[in-house]
Amino acid sequence: MASRAGVHATTVYRRWGSIAELLADVATSRFSGDIVVPDTGTLRSDLERYASDLAKDLCDPDTLALVRATIGTGGEQGAAACRGERQQQLEAILEREQARGRERPTLERTTDAILAPLYYRAVFTNEPLTSGWAYDLVSHLLSDENGAATAPDSASDSLLAD
To answer: Using an 8 Å Cβ cutoff, are 22 and 16 in contact?
Structure first.
């Protein structure tokens, strides 16, 4: 990389210190603003479009290679670089829904229901990331929020904490 930039390798390491730091900066830059936060007028449509766009992005071989390398070399710093902008985008969608005066799931629940499965499937499996599957993630999230699923009780919460 240093030779492609026309500098000595020490220049690169002086700026970033490690490959993990370099990849985290590349990921942060790459994922900033690459997906437009939709505003369709409904939470369901906003989340479906967002999840579908993210699925398409994660299908791009260059994007997937960057995500895998950043997480693989950077640990938590790399993971934060890959998810930070994505969570801010989701938060904007959820805040807009709240401003409309409607109930909305929490950011944590939305991240667990949409981002986590998309990233898991992209990084760790060969299963396809289709728009239909992304829409199903949204349907499960919103049906859970409407009482279709039961919340874990405090006994199971304490088991997880142990």
So the answer is: yes
Q: Which long-range contacts (CB under 8 A, 24 or more apart) does 99-107 make?
A: 102/43, 103/145, 104/43, 104/145, 105/141, 105/142, 105/144, 105/145
Is the Cβ–Cβ distance between 85 and 28 less than 8 Å? yes
Q: In Å, how far are 7, 9, 10, 23 from 1, measured between CA atoms? A: 9, 8, 11, 12
Q: Kindly report, residue by residue over 113-142, the tens digit of the pLDDT.
A: 999 999 899 989 999 999 999 999 999 999
Mean pLDDT of the chain: 78
Q: Is 138 in contact with 48 (CB distance < 8 Å)?
A: yes
pTM: 0.72
